Amino acid sequence: RYPWHASCKIQWEINGSCDSFKNRIVNQINAWQGDSLCPTTSASCPELPCGQNCLYDLVSANGNKIVATHKTPVARYIDDLTFTFKDQGGKCSVNAKSNSRLWYAVLDMGTNYCNLRNLLDGAGYTSSMFSEDTRDAVCTQYTSRDCSRF
Length: 150
Description:
alpha+beta; 32% strand
């Protein structure tokens, strides 16, 4: 039903050029560095995690590939992120992957999906600007995800 290891693969078709996509995603990764943006508990979220739009780090952005990491705010587990892309008929075709470094991680509450999708949303891409293809078989707990928390 899920991949054997906590991970996610997504195929996106983004309206616009890959140069624009690359710049927007790199800028978003840089904007969400460090832990100053990590949310704390509140009345609407009494138990952590309460969002993960923080602790991203850019590893490299060369040619048609972006490599980054994301740490979970509570336990500081590290996930490796890769975006590879190519221009295709006025759109940018993107293969996005997130993979837990923790060898024994099996279930992730959709965290690996959210690692990728949160960046897309943060960079200003709305649902009318792209199409998305993923499913539980290639994306751990995709159908039960909650990106407002995980």
